[in-house]
Amino acid sequence: MELIPIFEVKITAIILENYNTKQREAIEFSGKHLLLLAGAGTGKTKTIVGRAEFLINSGVPADQIQILTFTKRAANEIVERVKAGLSDYDTRALNGSTFHSWCNQLITKFPNLFGAANYTVIDPDDQLSLMKMACGTANEEYGKVRIKPQQILDVFSFARNTRSNLTDTIRKILFKGKDDPQTTEEIATLRPQLEHLIKEYQTQKKRQQYLDYDDLLLVVANRLNKDEAARKLLSGVYQHILIDEMQDTNPLQWYLLKPFEYICSLFCVGDDAQSIYSFRGADFKNVHLFKERVADAEVKVLDKNYRSTQEILDVSNWLLESSPIQYNKKLIASRGVGNKPIIVNVDNQFQEANYIATKILEAFTEGGNSFSDFLILSRSQYYTRPLQAVFLQKKIPYQTFGGRKFLEAAHIKDVVAVMRVINNPLDEIAWMRFFTFIHGIGPVKATSYMTEVMRLDPEDIEAGGLTTIIPGKEGEQAAAYYNAIASNKGKVKQAVHELYKLMEFELAMKYSKDWIEKRKPDFPVLEMLAENYSTLGEFISEGILDNATNVGGSHTLESSKLLTAERKDHVTISTVHSAKGLEADICFVLNVSPKVYPSAYSLGNIEETEEDRRVLYVALTRAKNTLFITRSTESINAFHQPLNSGNDEAINESAYFLEAIPEQLVEQTFPKGNFSAVKDAQKENEIDLDLGMDFS
User: Fold this and answer.
1) If you write DSSP's letter for every residue of 115-126 in order, what string do you get?
2) This prediction's pTM
3) Cβ-proximal residues to 56 (8 Å cutoff; 6+ apart), any chain
């Protein structure tokens, strides 16, 4: 048996001394494959970091370890923490990626193996443009359907990510799961038309050398599942794959990971109780049935919570224990006791909003809290609009999570379009955006110019071909934009800088309404992003996949200014689905009312009802010290109406999660209204506009 040098043994001891017993067992795991069921706040990220450090310390080369998670920010955080903990080791080659980014790297790294090296990755806007082209080409078939191109894309993407047949997907996405003879007949009529349009979309993609997001996973997964030689090739590349948030993987991602069961060792960390993304195709069975699906797999559990007090965990544990699904976990607080969660029963949203605002202001002015100590969670951002209005009125600073991603903003796409046509001269969508950006070139002219450009070699375009095709100032402008990138192909940041200087005036004119305040500050961010890439292709594909975020992993155009080191103090308002990874000392979970938890749309469907339970579980476990749960008294009263009372809104008692919550687990409060009744005049007066005013 090979002995580990004494120096490395000491390092290993230092690595492991900061972990509890169950974390150490996972980190030192010596079997083939492991699923680590890590409850909320149990240090799952810390354990992944420890596992990577342990492997490198044990002699595994850093470049043979792949870390996978769902956001670039989370992947970077894990990698940086590993590097910081192993300063005496060469960890430069350690790679952390999202699934899509990783597959893009594999396609780039093995151009012959996957056969897609010259393809351009397109974002959702470009996918829609391409589907519209497909519908235009197959206009006879498209004329027979009454659905929009975006809906066709949604059906196709969901079918691929869930690996479902088209009939079942049409039923779920377009007909909301209805299963009656009339619906079945409509689906049978619709399916061949949609299939024809989808095939035309696929043909358009292949002709123009495009890959959409789903293609990235599918190209790699198909090759590895069908080609033993491909698996053998990658077995010399990877020894260990570490996967975070395993519960969020969908069947397509499982199909991608399945061949790695035979290529290397899988270390999967997840929590089936936090699987809340089935609307995106996520399948909690990837965690729940892991041991049955993966040979030579073991399961370990982390249940010691470092985030919340036991009182908060007692409510969360009770919620899971009330489920017909066995989650087999009960979180234990390492911090001990605290305050009971408070259920706030409110008459309406404005009473709810004023109660929350008052609590925040009291804690800020009297309790020494910062605004950033508060997190507010809701099922939807729409529901928080009254709250935001009250915050504005009371001068409470806040930040919402949502909005379009950075590189999906129109002004950024205008600049990137020029880079795309140089990277892929067959990119028709980018050529159209490039040409129509120039003042004086409309869609008809742009289409004509694009047809001519397609006949030229890239060298001819760079040598002045654009000015021969496009007359006058428009041609000179187009050539200047093109050459700014073409002359800086190997210096991506410089290319962005030079192109932006040329385009700035036109951009300012096009977006004059909000140019200074919202759009112009994005371009220093774009240059910073470009600095991380060595080639145009890498920047376009990786940048689109990962597009850099500024705040909490959710870039919004309203918050797009380049941030300084000084973070603003603000309350965070988030949807629960955007709250994974968030935590706060004081958390408000809004509208935990009947017909919301579970949703009225979920009633009668056990899978959807249980997903709603997991959504609430995620929300409750974000709180560290204080948890407020608001709910509507009107909904509660309607819920308790007898079923035979003639009230159509009555709901079966088993359909509300908090109905049977033990009294000893929570406190309840009924805040008084903040608005006194106003007495108006008894009779209506005529308006007095002082029309007889003397202006002399």
Assistant:
1) S-TTPEE--HHH
2) 0.71
3) 62, 65, 82, 86, 89, 91, 94
Nearest to 202 by CA among 191, 218, 190: 218
Of the candidates 160, 244, 231, the residue with the CA atom closest to the CA atom of residue 168: 160
pLDDT of res. 313? 94
CA 355 to chain centre: 31
Helix (H, G, I), strand (E, B) or coil at 194: helix
From the list 306, 285, 313, 248, the residue with the least C-alpha distance to 47 is 306
Please give the Cα distance from 310 to 334 (Å, whole number). 8
Residue 130 scores a pLDDT above 50: yes
The per-residue pLDDT for 500 is 94
Smallest CA-to-CA distance from 327 within 271, 409, 408, 397 is with: 271
Q: What is the spatial distance between Cα 236 and Cα 657, in angstroms, rounded to a whole number?
A: 50
9, 59 contact by CB (below 8 A) = no
Compute the CA torsion angle 558, 559, 560, 566 (nearest 10 deg).
Answer: 160
Quickly state the pLDDT bin for 557 (edges 50, 70, 90): very low
533 Rama sector, left if φ>0, alpha if ψ -120 to 50, beta otherwise: beta
CA distances from 475 to 439, 465, 509 (A): 11, 9, 19
**73 pLDDT exceeds 50?**
yes
Structure tokens at 95: 């790679």
Instruction: State yes or no: pLDDT of 550 exceeds 60.
Output: no
Name the CA radius of gyration of the chain, rounded. Answer: 28
Q: How far apart are CA 542 and CA 547, in angstroms?
A: 8
Are residues 74 and 243 in contact, defined by beta-carbon separation less than 8 angstroms?
Answer: no
Cβ neighbours for 88, distance < 8 A, ≥ 6 positions apart: 11
| Token output for 53 | 């450090």
Neighbours of 3 (CB within 10 A): 7
Give the pLDDT confidence of 253-299 residue by residue, as tens digits: 999 999 999 999 999 998 877 766 676 677 777 787 888 889 999 99
Query: Residue 301 CA to chain centroid, in angstroms?
Result: 26
- Indicate the range of 111-115, 217-221, 326-330, 571-575 predicted with least confidence: 326-330
Work out whether strand 623-632 and strand 584-589 pair parallel, antiparallel, or are unpaired: parallel
DSSP 588-625: EE----TTBTTBGGGTT-HHHHHHHHHHHHHHHTTEEE
645, 322 in Cβ contact below 8 A?
no
Any residues with CB less than 8 A from the CB of 525 and at least 6 apart, and which? Answer: 406, 548, 550, 560, 562
Pairing, β 374-378 against β 304-305: unpaired
Among the listed residues 140, 120, 116, 117, the one whose alpha carbon sits nearest the alpha carbon of residue 130:
120
Q: Which uninterrupted H or E stretch holds 344?
A: strand 342-346
pLDDT, tens digit, 9 for 90 and up, residues 335-371: 878 899 999 999 988 899 999 999 999 999 988 899 9
Question: At residue 563, does pLDDT exceed 50?
Answer: no
pLDDT in tens, 207-266: 999 999 999 999 999 999 999 999 999 999 999 999 998 888 899 999 999 999 999 999
* The token pair that represents 89 in the structure block: 């080791």
Contact 255, 220 (CB under 8 A): no
Q: Is the pLDDT of residue 559 over 60?
A: no
Cα of first residue to Cα of last residue in the chain, in angstroms, is: 108
DSSP labels for 155-202?
A: HHHHHHHHT--HHHHHHHHHSTT--SHHHHHHHHHHHHHHHHHHHHHH
Strand, coil or helix: 569: coil
* Nearby residues of 183 by Cβ (< 8 Å), 6 or more positions away: 171, 175
Mean pLDDT computed over every residue of the chain: 83
